[in-house]
Amino acid sequence: MMKLSEYEKEQKMIDQKIWSLPKIEKGLMLDMGVGDSTRKLIGLGAKVVAVDSDLNNLVKQKNFDGMLVQCNASYLPFKDSVFELSVASFTLHEINPLLHLNVVSKMTRVSRRVMIVEPMSVQEPVNKRYDDIWSKAMHSIGRFEDYQEIMYWKKLMEKCGLRITICETFMGKNRMTSQEIDELIKRTVTLMNSYYVSKKYIEEIKDLGKDMINKGMRRSSIGVVIGEH
Ligand SMILES: C[S@@+](CC[C@H](N)C(=O)[O-])C[C@H]1O[C@@H](n2cnc3c(N)ncnc32)[C@H](O)[C@@H]1O
Fold it and tell me: Domain 6-228, what fold?
């Protein structure tokens, strides 16, 4: 088995801490935006319905032990209170901020508890530059990639009438190795190409990659907020 770097070990530990927070027991879970979070919830023994607006992302899921539904987060086709927990992990920053309150209120309508996991807006200059390039590239094609402070998510949940039970930020200390930075840049370029963004953003990301290797880079911190009725 491949040896994990200190960075990877730390990220794995943070991940375990985050997913131990909702204390999954029984009942049906809703995952808004299919992907890693869906696999985590299933791995924890949850019965999961995963929704996504992008049919391609749903079709990609193989050996999936749950139900997949194509829909928009603003229009959840479910009855009130059918889920024990609704999760939006790394999904809300891809949605127009003007719709956030509406989306969280829909999550609140269909479930007893709501969990939001989001990357936080930035700490270090290289992270800030990386986030800015991503955000500009996505805005240029009419998509969103807008990170917020943890208090922003907490306040939205409170506005929806939820009582906050957990509000925590997780920050790793270890920096990525040069190889990990290289892989991150390659993944980012592949993703940007798949969205057909202007070459200027791809060049900016590649340039930033060199700086990241010189200066080192940590992952942005992750905020987790859980609220219940
Ligand atoms: C960055 S991925 C995160 C997916 C997953 N939660 C995870 O942890 O890997 C965000 C997902 O949200 C989906 N998404 C974005 N906007 C959406 C919307 N308005 N309604 C439903 N899904 C949406 C995207 O298609 C994408 O699959």
Answer: Rossmann fold (3.40.50)
